Amino acid sequence: MNRYSLALLASVAAAAFSAAPAAAAPGVDAKARETAFDALISSADQQRWLEDMSSAPNHVGSPHDKANAEMQLALFKQWGWDAHIERFDVLYPTPISTNFEMVAPTRVTLGGQEPAIAQDPTSSRTAGALPPYVAYQGDGDVTAPVVYVNYGLPADYDALEQRGISVKGKIILARYGGGWRGLKPRLAQEHGAVGCLIYSDPADDSFAEADPYPLGGGRPEHGVQRGSVQDMTTYPGDPLTPGVGATPSAHRLTRQTATTILKIPALPISYADAGQLIARLDGPLVTGKARGGLGMAYHWGGSDAVKVHLAVKSDWSLKPIYDVIAVMKGSTYPDQWIVRGNHHDGWVFGASDPLTGQVALMSEAKALGQLARQGWRPARTIVYASWDGEEPGLLGSTEWAEEHADELKRKALLYINTDNNGRGYLEAEGSHELQSFVNQAGRDVTDPQAGVPTVERSRAAILANHYLAPDSVPDARFDAAKAGGDLPLGPLGSGSDYTAFLQHLGIASLNIGFGGEDQSSGSYHSIYDSYYHVTHFDDPGLAYGAALSKVVGRLVLRAADGPRVPAHYGDFASTVARYVTEVEKLDADQREKDRALADARREGYFKLSASPTDPLAAPRDRGVTPLLDMLPLDNAADHLKRAASAADAMLARAETLPPATRARIDAGLADIDQLLLDPAGLPRRPWFKNLIYAPGTLTGYGAKTLPGVREAIEQRRFDDARTYIVRTAAVIEAYAARLDALVALSRGTA
Amino acid sequence: MNRYSLALLASVAAAAFSAAPAAAAPGVDAKARETAFDALISSADQQRWLEDMSSAPNHVGSPHDKANAEMQLALFKQWGWDAHIERFDVLYPTPISTNFEMVAPTRVTLGGQEPAIAQDPTSSRTAGALPPYVAYQGDGDVTAPVVYVNYGLPADYDALEQRGISVKGKIILARYGGGWRGLKPRLAQEHGAVGCLIYSDPADDSFAEADPYPLGGGRPEHGVQRGSVQDMTTYPGDPLTPGVGATPSAHRLTRQTATTILKIPALPISYADAGQLIARLDGPLVTGKARGGLGMAYHWGGSDAVKVHLAVKSDWSLKPIYDVIAVMKGSTYPDQWIVRGNHHDGWVFGASDPLTGQVALMSEAKALGQLARQGWRPARTIVYASWDGEEPGLLGSTEWAEEHADELKRKALLYINTDNNGRGYLEAEGSHELQSFVNQAGRDVTDPQAGVPTVERSRAAILANHYLAPDSVPDARFDAAKAGGDLPLGPLGSGSDYTAFLQHLGIASLNIGFGGEDQSSGSYHSIYDSYYHVTHFDDPGLAYGAALSKVVGRLVLRAADGPRVPAHYGDFASTVARYVTEVEKLDADQREKDRALADARREGYFKLSASPTDPLAAPRDRGVTPLLDMLPLDNAADHLKRAASAADAMLARAETLPPATRARIDAGLADIDQLLLDPAGLPRRPWFKNLIYAPGTLTGYGAKTLPGVREAIEQRRFDDARTYIVRTAAVIEAYAARLDALVALSRGTA
I want to staple B76 with a disulfide (CB 3.0 to 4.6 A). Which of A645, B81, B202, B589 is the partner? Predict the structure, then answer.
């Protein structure tokens, strides 16, 4: 998959000037070890592995997917790790047939595999490759008129409703973007559509932003984005085994009772094919931001003028997935785990996604193995994981995390994820108490292009962009960059393998990569996501692959060998306080907007100003958002701020405490993030238990913070909002109380 | 031409709830007269005249242009007006040849007349019509590489400079929009380009907003926008006779010494032709808002990959223009004139622009003539003017105003302009003391579509749009609509015939029309601006033509017959105070932006964050804007506010004053707007003497208020800014002092 957010990570000044206390810098021995580690990182290694692993289709169930797992297993062992393959058997639909044709006004066969491009040698090796399709759509065979729905998100259905256009019994044509792909067929299905086509509009990932491949890295006219449409905002992983590992003995739902599988057929298509339909649609003109970038008029359609036949049939048998797990046992704290993962399965060749990240992970593992051979052992246990089946639904990481849930909750201190990586700026999201930890590592690695610390380059980009286009930079990021403190970590939503760790198990997590100057969005999930594309347009020479290994390697070494995982609870507290302010503002703003709508409807503004040629009905009256009692959240945020401040002060002098006290404090911190879980989980999706971070049910990959409250307001479930204000306040209070208790312990007043 | 601004005019509540005192409503007799006037307005008349006048090309110098003038003269006389034709002889270039071909990478002949469209009967009658061209370009014959320059405005040249691309010796390809057409070749010339092509990108006036003609009213792929590129921001009218009427005896400059004529050849082209070039340009990709809506990658070009041959030659002889002037003498104040104008020349058939406005004016004249036949005579003299030669450069109105300058300054109280008109919302700009006058007239006319007062519909549109897209509605407009007071008038820039009256002579002026729901931008200045287009897409049935006659007719009747032209000086004062706040904010914001740039350059943010594939140089250092002493403006604005408040209070009870005092007060108000003139005019353009309103030198049609100060800051002429702060404060003080004096007169304390 892909990182949803392009949030940049940067620190903005030398540590001495940092607004927040810097994370503990490594000692002299540790520094020497990091220097030795850097010397063992090789872009040449990464290029070799990348070319090999992306030489054939490597999707779940393909021979090369299994071969890649076995090759990695052999390498891990060769590098001295205690490694094994862990297999799960998951429901994974493999397409048998994907038919797509226009049947009116003329009959034209469309769809099918993407064509080879001469310059790209692997693009012709598509024997055994998946055709363009989306996983976990419903099998079906439908013929129906087409309705253009823009991005196919809730606001688009409002726009259709205002024009009196229904998708009931129709096939929707949605463009990629605006929100996660899986929402498009799900919302279509909820609105009564019988089929769904999703296409890559050139306004979003082709010539509007990059020259089409192979002149540039942008999406060519016949390029198609595959992907999963599994409803992973309800739960990710094997649809048949929510909450438990997909082992032979697991209790399994049936395909019919699994709620994360769609009922209607859906296919992704190219903009060349979409243009054939759009050019013929009739009905009102699509104007403004709802139209895409094809050089023609867009119409909403919905009449019989354009009809499509869409038929998709899959093999729904269970398939094996192969996680490669490699362990280096800790010398001092073997039961404290630092877990580090990336996935190895792709949609076709998967060179950028996921292998640019995966080869960085392999470099780290090789270097750590070498250090171990030279006599070093980590204080804590390091677990390296190469996940399978991420693309269809975070299968490998979720099943493994579910299977080992109890042990992970007892032992795992930290999960560090990467996925596709490209040239550009260091980007990171994660648990906010890890902000200074990540910034410090980013400060200590040199950007391969600019020759300055990676964070200097990120900071420069934020400040340059703010000068050129102030609205493009969020205030919090600009303020942090300008003030010279650490840059904030973005919150984690979903879209990669940290989800089960953070949001199901409550393990502090990070997701890290470089990007912003690569053109991988143009090859994303297509046959053109190839070694050729990566080495020409995404990370020539894999210089940023090496930089990623160095940043993540530092995080692993420092977490594994330091006195504890460096955390700064004040960063978590101030960020939570900001989120509380945001949901309060959301409540007030939504109420104001509702009142304005009620006024405008009562006064007839929409009717009076309606256009004679494109009359719009008034937006639907959805009632007025109540002002909600947010005091429990205010109290909790305030408590957290005070507790975090005392805890940070205590930890700054922790090394002066008696070892037994320190051990008890560290034990109390080890699982503190699990206090953010509520056993009941979020409304309508109990698998997601973290009340601070979740993927949005209407954003998919994008994070919603304080999700129980925020989404309830947005979705007008005000009783849920009231309930989750209290529940969310309770987990924050519990977290703060734990910090209070540990401070009391340090003072001997517990 | 066209109104630049789509500023809506609306009042927002019954007069009783109006925040500002309502303009004096007409008495019982006057009301009956307005009812009689309305009954004489006929959409059928307007349709007949429109079809006839747009039946053949009617540009300056064409037989039908002269015939239309003579036809109108006959009608005015028939309706009882004292009418004549006033002729001027002006430099007007008529194209002899316009050649445009691509010569590399392949030779393709492009350009030429627009093709006929079967449904539109006049589109095939192009014998004698002007080909696509722009007036007052320089003759020339050049072959050179092409550079795409987006809108071709200053920010675009900054973007080119940051990429190291020069237009020197090249032909620029600019799209219409972002600013006035004439700026594009002027800036190209200043940057060393040897030729200029301007095309209509579909993102701006075709399928992005309307279905292409004839399915809708949007610009078809071969449609071309003609226009003038005369530098009318320096002075409009005949380039050879600035400041004086182009009569036989006038002193004339030579074509070489006239500063408003370009030196380089320029042609407007269609997006079909532009696409032929754009598809072949190379160089860096154009991204973001700089690209247009064609379905292809845009590149900046500039290499020898694409070369164009461009050759334009015109007949530069003097041509006659025919203003039709009709007078109805005032019974009580014959030397107080109310002047009302529209133009009658078009670029081809000119059905929408200008004839939709012109036939509304004719309806008014017919109705006023009929009222006069029934025994009514206006108290003041009414002058109806049908201008010729507006399209090439406001020729007819400017020469007439210059020729009669002394008399107009003595006698004219008000100039009311219209131009093209279409269905939609009442829009008005003008002298701000006339705000309540216009609002009151707008309240008294029913919108033909919604059946409510026109201003109710405008108000509804503002508030509906604010709900749907808050950022699309300026705060001042929303606040006024919401508060229930009169809606502000937009300031006048240029682009139609009020310019000489307001900005050269200091006569209070208005420009009024309906629009926002027509599709006339798609036929603008093309052969498709036809009776068919207007009656299908712009104002079917000319219902809004009749509504315009009723609004303007009320203004004329009330101004001609009322105790005085209704003015509310508090509206002027509060608007001027807002403008003063704006220029103060401009100064502070520009300084802040300069400081940020200096910081970013010093710290190397641009260099550090530069992309390896599209490296941008840092924006050019232009120094730091100083904080300017604005106190003279603050003092003047404060003085004006107090004086205006006292004057409004005095005028509210003016009818209780002795007649002789009233007459002296009215005489003092008659020419008060002339106090806003500075004899030296604006920096580098002395013809423009009004220090409150001017067209922007870098916006063309768009207004700049307090232009001597505002443009000097924007253009970094800080000595000019200091000088014009004082000069602008002086004219405001003089205006305020005049009001003070008249109030003193009313008290007998003068």
Answer: B81
